[in-house]
Amino acid sequence: MIALGDLDLLSKSSDGDDEERWNYVPSEEDQFSEMGETDDGESLPPGDNSPSDIPTELSPDLVNLVHDSQISASVVELYDSGSTQHISQYKDKFTSLTDIPPKSFSAANKQSFDATAVGDLVIDVPNGYDMTKLTLTEVLFSPAVGYTLVSIGRLDQLGYSVTFADRTCTIRSPDDDVIGRMPKSQAGLYCVIHTGENDSVNVVETITVMELHRRMGHISLNVARRLTENGLMSGLKFDLSKDKPTFCEACVYAKATRKPVAKECAGEHAEEFAAEVHTDVWGPAPIQTLGGRRYYITFTDDKTRLTYLHLLCQKSEAFTAYQQFEAWCHTQHGVAVKALHSDCGREYLGKEFIMYLKAAGTKQKLTIHDTPQHNGVAECLNRTLLEKVRAMLHESSLPRALWGEAVRHAVWLKNWTLTKALEGGMPLKAAYWAETRP
């Protein structure tokens, strides 16, 4: 038999606000008291001038929760840091139960109820997708209360640690293992509802359709509304009156696609030689040339489509190759490079390269990051040259190490070949002579 002196009274406390909070506190005699009779017939504990209040109904939110038609047959558990005693109405959940003399208590609405037994109770604590069995000792049994009240203070006495952070109540065992996590409901309660269907656990929370849309992986808003309207989501209540405009920035970001890049040049060709030069570095090649080169860089004039190629050992040699190309333009054509069009490769973004272009008055045109299509002239040239190289080496059965000589020969052939970009004209003819033929 459990000594009555080990049990505590329940009383009403106020924080000075309009709302009142109900807590278990020890009585002066540290035991349950018999109910007395007042002159007007109300039951009072002996030696007290006012009824003892007990939270059979903690708050209007909890009253609505317990008496909700959808969960009226559910098991409700409330985790309270202000309570000093476990109490429950679910007799079949007790693993052991010892009868005690009925002790009556009065609630704030002057409704009385009896605690008739005390024992051990096993509850299921939600822990992610699983549940953890937790045994509560010295739990009062009262069939009149509408829920199971779990005392955080009692758990602390047994060595459990409980933290409240980020709208979540986390319970850890004496071995510091997490045994339960309960999110905070919209009403500010850490309340768990066991529906009884497949022994599932639901934390009652009020959310909007947009919040459900985000939690369900940004599903269609129409689907989210049908889930709420058809009652297919359990353990949640939906406030359809607080829906904000159905605009989700994350969905817009995730579904954004890049506009297609035009396959043909949309602008006009340059009107002067070297007014715009397209350049790109290719490599590394899987096999180096006989001279130890593994890269090449090309410079293509936008007006004539005449191409200049230089083999490189390393990408860092791109700046030197450009200086040689620029000198060739000055000597052979008497012009300066006005604009250099390239991607955002590091070989073109070196401090020395950039300062040199600025000093020469050359405009640097860079493509958008990860958009090689905007450097289409140089990129398409790479594909054309490499296809010719593979074809020539394959047909001639020459060693693959001769790819450097093959690509230089492919550039020479390209400059002597008719091209669609010049409406059937020849790059070498456009750059030098009016009537030159191969």
What's the arrangement of secondary structure elements?
Blueprint: E1 10-14, E2 20-24, E3 36-37, E4 43-44, H1 60-66, E5 75-80, E6 87-88, E7 94-106, E8 112-127, E9 130-141, E10 148-151, H2 152-157, E11 161-165, E12 168-172, E13 178-183, E14 190-194, E15 201-202, E16 205-207, H3 209-215, H4 221-229, E17 236-238, H5 249-255, E18 277-282, E19 295-301, E20 307-312, H6 318-333, E21 339-342, H7 351-360, E22 363-366, H8 376-396, H9 403-415, H10 427-431
Parallel strand pairs: 5-10, 6-9, 16-17, 18-21, 21-22
Antiparallel strand pairs: 1-2, 3-4, 5-14, 7-8, 8-9, 11-12, 12-13, 14-15, 18-19, 19-20
Quick gist of this model?
This protein is 23% helix and 28% strand. The protein is of the alpha/beta class and 438 residues long.
Tell me, rounded to a whole number, the average pLDDT.
Answer: 77
What overall geometry do the principal axes of the alpha carbons give? rod-shaped
How is the biggest beta sheet arranged? 5 strands, mixed
Low-confidence stretches: 1-72, 434-438
Rounded to the nearest angstrom, the distance between the terminal CA atoms is 114 Å
Beta-strand percentage?
A: 25-35%
Radius of gyration: 41 Å
Strand order of the largest sheet: 20-19-18-21-22
- Helix percent reads 10-25%
- Please tally the β strands and state the result: 22
The chain-level structural class is alpha/beta
**Number of folding domains?**
2
Architecture overview:
This protein is α/β, with parallel strands linked by helices and 438 residues long. It has two domains: 4-207, no CATH class; 277-431, Ribonuclease H-like superfamily/Ribonuclease H (Nucleotidyltransferase, domain 5). The chain has ten helices and 22 strands. It has helices at 60-66, 152-157, 209-215, 221-229, 249-255, 318-333, 351-360, 376-396, 403-415, 427-431, and strands spanning 10-14, 20-24, 36-37, 43-44, 75-80, 87-88, 94-106, 112-127, 130-141, 148-151, 161-165, 168-172, 178-183, 190-194, 201-202, 205-207, 236-238, 277-282, 295-301, 307-312, 339-342, 363-366. It is rod-shaped, with a radius of gyration of 41 Å. 29% of the residues are buried.
